[in-house]
Amino acid sequence: MMRRGHTAFYLSTLLLLLLFVGVLAVLTGVFSQAQRKSAEARELTTATALARNAAEALSAAHDETELAHILRENDNIQQEEGGICAFYDQAQQPSAEGFYRVHLTYEPQSTPGGTLVRSTITVETEKGTQPLCSLSTAVYIRGGQEP
Amino acid sequence: MRQNTKQIGILGVLLLAVTVCLSVLAVLALTTAEADRRLAERNREVTVQTYTQEREAQIWLSEADGQMKSGTVLAELPGTQTHNGITLKMLQGGENEAFVIGLTDDGAGSYRVVLWKPVTDWAPNTDIGTLWAG
Amino acid sequence: MREEAKRSQHRYIIALLGVFAMGFLLLVLFGTKTYLQTVRSQNENNDRRAVLTYVATAVRAYDRAGGVAIGTGPEGAVLLLRDAGSDAAYEHRIYLYRGNLVEEYTASASSLTPESAQALGPTDTFSLEKEGKDLLRVRTDRGETVICLRAGEVG
After folding, report:
1. Which of A138, A145, B2, C140 has the fewest CB atoms within 10 Å distance of its CB?
2. Chain C, 124-153: which have a CB under 8 Å from a chain A CB?
């Protein structure tokens, strides 16, 4: 009788312990998910701001060289075939070893009046596999427009 | 034995109370983070949409410039209206969204961009319902 | 013997209580740290969106000849957004005042009234740089926004 009492006691404490471990695991998972979503939101906000700035720089530039000049700061530019790459750190500051990589394609197309430059701007992080932000824009440079 | 049962009972109640409090904190943290992420996504969508409109506007401008170089007069560009010397072109975007371009004649077949902005068509809801039936 | 068994069970309950307390303490620390970080990040993102996106949107809304100019305010540059033409009766002003970016919409001829201006968001710095004729670079401690005027020039 006494033994059964002991067994019941230890069984109930074991159950409590298991419940406790379960609660701990679930809540830790929820908090980790919250941290992850918060980091995603921060990266997305920064990526969108960088993409918007790059698009505005494209609108102001009359050629690819001028575009690189507008974006260049702290040696953060890499010229590539058909485009430019700009790097920024996590505080959105230009940096050669940046966390964010902003890639702009530069596709000029001759038109009767001047040049229509189409561009696709994508922003990725050094650890990401998918671009955080991707937008498509264009700028029309009239023939005879000086930089 | 009864004492042991009481002690286990107390432990169980303690476990339950702390679990409820921490669950509330966990749900609060998760919903805050999710709301922040949704807002960031919405911001991204609006930015992408804005530059899609910008692209369409620039394409129209390049076509219009080509037409003017071929001899078409600014005020006679297809799909435009002229008010107070400004030739306006409205490019429809999504629902209630449009892009307005305003050009003025600079002489000798040239033009100047004087207006370049996205507009949102917003009609205020004037139906306030029956506030008081008395 | 019975006493012995009772004592060992007692110790077992205390140990269990200790394990629970330790576990919950660590979880509370982790949870509160996560929540604080989440809220801080949300506030930063909101401030960034409020300050930078708002300024960019405001400038684009006034993108016309004579619409955008840079002036001088109590703590640095003032962004002046004029209604229509450089001799407009009213203008929208955005500038830094006591750690906040503030705005006011008032008669062009009147002086700045920062005490009654509407706060947009916190920032310790606000600078405006003109590059070329039509590029405006706005820097705050929330980040930087670049705006190219398509219709007007930065005055």
Report:
1. B2
2. 131-132, 134-135, 143-148, 150
Task: List the beta bridge partners of residue C106.
Answer: C91
Measured CA distances, A6 to A83, A139, B1, C15 (Å): 76, 82, 8, 17
CB C145 within 8 A of CB C52: yes
On whether residue B125 sits in a domain, the answer given is no
Structural domain tally of chain B?
A: 1
> B-chain residues within 8 Å CB-CB of C16?
11
- Along the 155 residues of chain C, how does pLDDT read in single tens digits? 677 877 888 888 888 889 999 999 999 999 999 999 999 999 999 988 888 888 998 998 888 878 899 999 888 999 999 876 556 688 899 999 999 999 999 888 888 898 889 998 889 999 999 988 889 999 998 889 999 998 877 77
Nearest of B51, C107, B22 to residue A136 by alpha carbon: B51
Interchain contact, C31 vs B32, CB within 8 Å = no
The structure's pTM equals 0.87
Residue B129 is assigned to a structural domain of this protein:
no
Any domain includes B128: no
B80 lies in a domain? yes
Write out the two tokens for A68.
Answer: 């690189």
Interchain contact, B33 vs A116, CB within 8 Å: no
Answer yes or no: do B26 and C53 touch at CB < 8 A: no
Q: Which residue segment(s) compose the domain that B32 sits in? A: 2-120
Domain borders along chain C are: 1-155
The position carrying tokens 């740089």 is C129
Residues 6+ apart with CB under 8 A from C106: C90, C91, C93, C113
Cβ atoms B52, A136 nearer than 8 A: yes
Helix ranges, B70-132 (H): none
User: How many Cα neighbours within 13 Å face the side chain of C71?
Assistant: 18
ipTM of the complex: 0.85
